[in-house]
């Protein structure tokens, strides 16, 4: 691993020391020790470039790890982001297959088209799915131990041009997360229950060391739930379903000083929803299109090689070969009698999928001179994506098939002067080649190609041991997707046609912010960290569905320009007996042509958590309030009134006695059974929900 600047090595030493302590303890106890050691902004970020602490990145970054996932007990991915400023789920509030991501107003609530404005990865594999009124990410939260959220287009350098909203990185669990120091294996059982919908989940995980240099994990989870109810006691339609997931993951360390590693990961999430809304993202059209049975499978396979180049400043290599496939199958339509070509082909039995194979190579070299510590990362990324669709009437006009080949080349530097000033320039270029399948070509689609370029420069200056200032300027371009280029309504010249003359989307973002960190503020050993960010995003040639239903018009068109601006505050306090957390976000936007607020703009919101600890008993308890203001956007379906929701949680991990090793997480969400709807959700939110999970590991 490339050598870190000394200030960051201090942060890293804290993290590594904590990790060593954690390794000696299983499960929730380890999580509680980790949480007391440093706040969210004190966690390491691996997705920015060289590893660094979140508060030291010149970008808004949040890291969620295992204790956050355990405490939230997420039923769907959207449940994870209550404490992350600027990030929400969009679409449906409670449907596992009806959610997409929204970061700073980027991410569509009603249709999930163009979700590559936010790049999502699992163990380095890029995940992408878009289908009419269906969510974009189907992975089971039980698979993951870590989520990194990098907000803003500065992440485009390492992950791909077009990441206007940012990047969300998921990391699956490892065997070493479950095996205590000095032991070789663990078998862990976990059961969870949700009172709203009578949901149950059971998970069995086997972790085993294979000699001194290898380990293997196998995990299986299965669960089901009935329909949930909102705060008024009304059923939230189509929230029932069944799901199972599995993970096999292995690591092998070898080479000089164990500086090389091979990692293999295979995961699958299989979801079955009977009588699910055809318009899975919800809204008024949910009842208009009726229901169908929906079966979705999400597969991810990665093979990663890392060479840290012990003693060699020119070598810190990472190579990842990945395969991802997400597919849906729909049948048994309640309005199947309306199945017909054109608009109502959506009511025909159909299958749709995305399949992506990718190779990413990246190397970091150290070129330090004098007072400067310098690191330069070079990379190349090659991918091939196929988009498939078919129905009982043949090809799906609203989900055109085709393929995309993409080559990306990038370079990013990190230049550190006297541990105070860090300058991070970056440049990426992606070349794309897109081709329609035979059906899309017959509808008028032709081969397309283009190049997207994303430059940036970011800097952070530490004024003293407490205060720091940071800022960045980033520009990114997003090429149109297969969906945007080739979608039609299936009626030829009598309807909307493929959109072959789309321009690239472009975004220029300026960010500026302050960081603050201190210890011993109110008591010995306590810590306070805070980060405030202002941003302004100029967008041109935004791609959106054409509202016109006129004859022979493109299905998609470019909106001339828009602006998104706002601010975020993230802060956390940790002491021996107390803890608190704050996440605040305000996003404003304007369509320059109409002057209206963009549909996907989230309401101003704040989340405040206060809690207490009883270290000797392994107990933590807390209260969280989330408040959202009212908002009016360009679409009445994504406007909303203000509300506040209260949650309670307790975590308990006995440290001795017969119950040692037991992990208990209890939470009560929406304590006062409030009826409300988030403006990015097209359904009412669930009412009061009591969540309970119990876990116990057997080790040897």
TrEMBL record:
Residues 261-671 form the TonB-dependent receptor-like beta-barrel domain. The keyword Transport applies. Pfam families: Plug, TonB_dep_Rec_b-barrel. Its main location: membrane. One of its GO terms (cellular component) is cell outer membrane. The lineage of its organism: Bacteria, Pseudomonadati, Pseudomonadota, Alphaproteobacteria, Rhodobacterales. Belongs to the TonB-dependent receptor family. It is found in: Cell outer membrane. Keywords: Cell outer membrane, Membrane, Signal, TonB box, Transmembrane, Transmembrane beta strand, Transport. One of its GO terms (biological process) is siderophore transmembrane transport. InterPro entries: Beta-barrel_TonB, Beta-barrel_TonB_sf, Plug_dom, Plug_dom_sf, TonB-dep_rcpt-like, TonB_haem/Hb_rcpt. Residues 55-167 form the TonB-dependent receptor plug domain. It is a multi-pass membrane protein. Residues 1-30 form the signal peptide. GO terms for molecular function: heme transmembrane transporter activity; siderophore uptake transmembrane transporter activity. CDD domains: ligand_gated_channel. Gene3D superfamilies: TonB-dependent receptor, beta-barrel domain, TonB-dependent receptor, plug domain. This is TonB-dependent receptor. It comes from Paenirhodobacter huangdaonensis.
């Amino acid at each position: 691993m490339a050598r870190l600047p000394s200030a960051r090595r201090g942060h890293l030493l804290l993290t590594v020391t904590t990790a060593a302590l954690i390794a000696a303890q299983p499960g929730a106890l380890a999580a509680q020790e980790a949480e007391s050691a440093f706040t969210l902004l004190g966690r390491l970020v691996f997705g920015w470039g060289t590893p660094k602490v979140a508060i030291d990145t010149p970008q808004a970054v949040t890291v969620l790890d295992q204790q956050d996932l355990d405490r939230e007990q997420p039923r769907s991915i959207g449940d994870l982001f209550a404490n992350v400023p600027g990030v929400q789920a969009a679409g449906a509030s409670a449907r596992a297959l009806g959610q997409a991501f929204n970061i700073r107003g980027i991410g569509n609530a009603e249709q999930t088209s163009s979700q590559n404005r936010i790049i999502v990865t699992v163990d380095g594999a890029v995940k992408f799915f878009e289908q009419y009124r269906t969510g974009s990410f189907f992975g089971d939260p039980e698979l993951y131990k870590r989520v990194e959220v990098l907000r803003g287009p500065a992440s485009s350098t390492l992950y791909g041009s077009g990441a206007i909203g940012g990047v969300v990185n998921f990391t699956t669990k490892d065997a070493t997360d479950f095996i205590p120091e000095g032991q070789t294996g663990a078998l862990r059982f976990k059961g969870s229950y949700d009172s709203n919908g009578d949901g149950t989940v059971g998970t069995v995980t086997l972790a085993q060391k294979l000699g001194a240099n290898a380990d293997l994990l196998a995990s299986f989870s299965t669960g089901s739930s009935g329909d949930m109810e909102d705060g008024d006691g009304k059923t939230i339609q189509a929230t029932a379903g069944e799901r199972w997931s599995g993970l096999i993951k292995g690591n092998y360390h070898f080479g000089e000083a164990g500086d090389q590693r091979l990692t293999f990961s295979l995961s699958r999430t299989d979801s079955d929803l009977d009588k699910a809304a055809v318009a899975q993202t919800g809204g008024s059209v949910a009842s208009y299109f009726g229901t169908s049975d929906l079966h979705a499978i999400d597969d991810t396979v990665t093979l990663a090689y890392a060479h840290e180049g012990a003693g060699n400043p020119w070598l810190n290599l990472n190579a990842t070969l990945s395969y991802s496939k997400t597919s849906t199958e729909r049948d048994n339509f309640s309005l199947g009698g309306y199945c017909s070509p054109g608009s109502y082909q959506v009511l025909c039995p159909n299958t749709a999928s995305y399949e992506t194979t990718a190779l990413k190579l990246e190397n970091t070299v150290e070129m330090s001179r004098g007072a400067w510590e310098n690191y330069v990362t070079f990379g190349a990324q090659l991918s091939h994506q196929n988009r498939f669709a078919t129905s009982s009437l043949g090809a799906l006009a609203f989900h055109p098939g085709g393929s995309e080949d993409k080559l990306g080349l990038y370079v990013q530097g990190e230049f550190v002067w006297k541990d105070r000033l860090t300058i991070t320039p970056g440049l990426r270029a992606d070349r794309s080649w897109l081709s329609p399948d035979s059906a899309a070509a017959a509808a008028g689609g032709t081969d397309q190609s283009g190049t997207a370029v994303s430059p940036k420069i970011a800097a952070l200056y530490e004024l003293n041991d407490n205060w720091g200032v940071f800022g960045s300027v980033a520009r990114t371009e997003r090429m149109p997707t297969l969906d945007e280029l080739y979608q039609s309504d299936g009626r030829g010249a009598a309807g909307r046609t493929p959109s072959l003359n789309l321009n690239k989307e472009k975004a220029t973002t300026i960010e500026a912010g302050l960081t603050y960190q201190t210890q011993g503020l109110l008591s010995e050993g306590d810590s306070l960290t805070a980060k405030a960010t202002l941003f302004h995003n100029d967008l041109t040639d935004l791609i959106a569905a054409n509202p016109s239903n006129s004859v022979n018009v493109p299905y998609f068109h470019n909106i001339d320009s828009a602006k998104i601006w706002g601010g975020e505050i993230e802060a956390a306090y940790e002491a021996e007996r107390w803890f608190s957390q704050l996440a605040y976000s305000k996003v404003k936007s304007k369509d320059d042509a109409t002057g209206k607020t963009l549909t996907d703009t989230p309401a101003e919101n704040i989340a405040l958590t206060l809690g207490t600890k009883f270290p000797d008993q392994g107990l933590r308890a807390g209260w969280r309030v989330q408040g959202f203001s009212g908002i009016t956007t360009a679409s009445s379906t994504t406007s909303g009134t203000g509300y506040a929701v209260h949650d309670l949680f307790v975590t308990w991990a006995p440290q001795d006695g017969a119950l040692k090793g037991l992990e208990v997480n209890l939470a009560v969400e929406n304590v006062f059974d409030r009826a409300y709807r988030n403006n990015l959700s097209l359904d009412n939110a669930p009412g009061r929900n009591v969540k309970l999970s119990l876990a116990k590991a057997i080790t040897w």
